[in-house]
Amino acid sequence: MKPASSRNWSFRFGTGFFGLVLILIVVGIGVELTRQSWLSIAKFGLKFWFTQTWDPVAGDFGALPFIWGTLYSSIVALLIAAPIALGIAVFISELCPARLQQPLVFLTELLAAIPSIVYGLWGIFVMVPAVRALESALPQAVRALPIFSGPAAGLGMLSASLILAIMVVPFTSAVAREVLKAVPVTQREAAYALGATRFEAIAAALYYARTGIVGAIMLGFGRALGETIAVTMVIGNNPQVSLSLFAPQYTMSAVIANEFAEAADELHLHALVEIGLVLFIITLLVNSLSRLLIWSMARSAKAASVAEPAAVGATA
Amino acid sequence: MNRRTALIALATAAALGVHATAQKVQINGAGATFPNPIYSKWFAEYNKLNPNVEINYASVGSGAGIRQITNQTVFFGATDGPMTNEQLQAAPGKILHFPTVLGGVVPIYNLPNVNAELKFTGPVLADIFLGKITKWNDPAIAKLNAGVNLPATDITVAHRSDGSGTTYIWVDFLSKLSPEFKKRVGVNTAVNWPVGVGGRGNEGVSGLVSQTPGSLGYVELIYALQNKIAFGTVQNMDGEFVKASVASVTAAASAAAAQMPPDFRVSITNAPGKGVYPISSFTWLLLYESPKDKSQSKVMVDFVKWALGDGQKFAPDLGYAPLPANVVKLELDALAKIKVS
């Protein structure tokens, strides 16, 4: 039998090695994406991020419409999904009769298990016609707003955001539910002891769990950013920067999926890989920002909970 | 003792059997998705006739097929648009094109109260896809369709969002008929569309058109035939309005055979002649003139000979137009150039 110190050392080395592998994979992806998109990076430079033309015939490529479409659809999806997901999480963890709890949990998890191509097909045949009917039913005065302008095609930003929202809800609500479950019972009991109503007690629990809930929402955002096939089936695939929810637009992952197989021209191929690189960078940025947000919230929460007893002590 | 001899005999037979299967030839190819149904049929039928020949085809798209044969990761490629001169020069050896079957692309539309079959011309279709004609009752459309009560609604243009040989044929035709389309959009498997919504695949475009009143799109003839989608006629070079069919697409190739370049890299959109459907195209197999593996090469040449001969009879049932006899003859001559030993 080996001495304990040697086993400790190999355990440490082993886990450290696997940790390092993770970092190497991320760096490796970045390096490889850069290498494979070099023609495009050299030709367009930073301009690639800010120009709107995507012309495979003329060999002129800019990523702005795709960046815009990806961020716009994901943000709108989140605005729709976050309240619904929170509502589901609160209902299941706080209000739901015990008999309903398991079936509801099962159903939301089932939503997460449906393949995205199935969402896409459902989107084309069921949701898009409904969205088109809704769009054409809007009064002219509303249609005049820039956010609702353009013909009612059904396919477009609104459909993409709606389908993303449906896909994001199970993830966000599952995590939010776990976070709420982790709120100590003493928190709620304390709230009730102070004479809080049920609503106020739930609000207190939500406040206590806020960092975890932001984390749950950001997880949904990450999922929405990368979703490909369901979005490309309903977004209309037109590379334009438009504020209108009715306009057909495009996302980064959709253009890669659509054009990669037939891209015979080297520059076109490199531009598509550079879109992948841009998506990679944006995903990294979003994740780091949400991590920063959660850290700063956690720190201020900790500071507050440390400061409060001190203040109580001072008055005593 | 007897038993032992029997065993030895059995072992020898087994060894011989192994030897026979060892001569099995496997050939890998990759490329266009458009001819995938007929290629799959051909490889299966050919395997029935020659059980030791197994041809595998990955339908990954024309662009990917060109890349893979250039990198020599597959023995043969397949494409819906001929390789460009730069692409040919990038390959490590001389690549030859062989047309295998033909396909057509048709305009489909959704006008709920119009029962007549609409007529189109290249310039009108080009202007619609440029966003210059935006209403169904535009004088340019009305002039071609006298007596049809066209609505005053917007035209919703539907096109392919994925890179596709179908798009290549469509824009190749529009570019020939409209200098402005050629200048502003050009010819490629994926282009920068001035207007419209993009659907993924033939099913995406036809889904879009069938659900959107007032829409106009384009799909492969096979797809429209198999799914019973109504489509319009298109004016050909001789001024006739021709409906796409297996016969009218073959007629386009027949007309083009007279001026066939020796490398078969030819666009037959807007071909001259009577009864010719103008939005037609070949689809090509790509082979190295002098491949490294000569035994595979011999098998492949035999297969192509069969595909150009007996194989053609499978084409119409699958919605492809068979090659005309004069093109097959030119190809058999070209096939003799491929080194098989």
* Count of strand segments of chain B: 11
User: Most extensive interface, residues per chain?
Assistant: A-B, 35 and 36 residues
Unreliable runs of chain A, pLDDT <50, ≥5 residues? 309-316
Mind summarizing the main beta sheet of chain A? 2 strands, antiparallel
Oligomeric assembly = heterodimer
**Major β-sheet strand ordering of chain B:** 2-1-3-11-4-8-6-7
Spatial order of the strands in the main sheet of chain A?
1-2
Mean pLDDT of chain A: 88
Give the CA-based shape of chain B: elongated
Q: What is the β-strand count of chain A?
A: 2
Give the overall form of chain A.
globular
> Strand-residue fraction of chain B?
15-25%
Q: What does the largest sheet of chain B look like?
A: 8 strands, mixed
Distance between the termini of chain A: 59 Å
Distance between termini of chain B?
47 Å
Q: Provide the β-strand percentage band of chain A.
A: under 5%
What's the helix-strand series of chain B?
HEHEHEHEEHHEHHEHEHEEHEHH
Count every helix of chain B, treating DSSP H or I runs of 4 or more residues as helices: 13
Radius of gyration of chain B: 23 Å
- Report the structural category of chain B: alpha/beta
The helix-and-strand class of chain A reads: mainly alpha
List the defining traits of the structure above.
heterodimer; A: two-stranded antiparallel sheet; globular; B: 341 residues; 8-stranded mixed beta sheet; 3-stranded mixed beta sheet; 19% strand; elongated
Task: Please outline the helices and strands.
The complex is a heterodimer of chains A (316) and B (341).
Chain A lengths: L3 H33 L1 H7 L9 E2 L4 E2 L2 H32 L2 H16 L2 H22 L2 H4 L13 H25 L3 H9 L4 H11 L1 H17 L2 H6 L17 H8 L6 H50 L1
Helix pairs in contact in A: 1-13, 2-13, 3-7, 3-10, 4-7, 5-7, 7-10, 8-9, 10-13, 12-13
Chain B lengths: L1 H21 L2 E7 L4 H14 L3 E7 L2 H9 L5 E4 L5 H6 L4 E16 L8 E2 L1 H9 L8 H6 L11 E5 L4 H13 L1 H6 L12 E3 L1 H11 L3 E6 H6 L6 E3 L5 E2 L3 H11 L23 E9 L5 H15 L16 H11 L6
